[in-house]
């Protein structure tokens, strides 16, 4: 390959930037409004955190119900033979 056929570092960066923007646009991200995109990501992060907390609460509630049920059965056997 001749030196004249090689891309400059700046050309490579420009191509990489354009490819990145095109990919993000394809994924539905507004690359022309950075603040809007940041708000979108922040909202997604909050939704994920809420979902994770909800899953933890559900798991703890389920465990509490199971343990309470077992304790009630044991108590019933002890008090009523």
Largest sheet data: none
- What is the N-to-C succession of helices and strands? HH
Helix content: over 70%
The best one-word shape is: rod-shaped
Helix and strand topology:
Layout: H1 9-26, H2 34-80
Provide a compact summary of the structure:
The chain is an all-alpha fold.
Structural notes for this entry:
By secondary structure, this protein is mainly alpha-helical. It is built from two helices and no strands. The protein has helices at residues 9-26, 34-80. The radius of gyration is 28 Å and the shape is rod-shaped.
Key features?
81 residues; mainly alpha; 2 helices
């Amino acid at each position: 390959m001749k030196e004249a056929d090689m891309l400059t570092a700046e050309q490579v960066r420009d191509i990489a930037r354009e490819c990145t923007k095109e990919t993000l646009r394809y994924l539905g991200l507004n690359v022309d409004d950075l603040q809007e995109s940041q708000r979108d990501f922040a909202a997604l992060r909050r939704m994920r955190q809420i979902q994770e907390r909800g899953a933890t609460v559900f798991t703890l509630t389920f465990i509490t119900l199971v343990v309470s049920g077992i304790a009630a059965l044991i108590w019933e056997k002890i008090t009523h033979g």
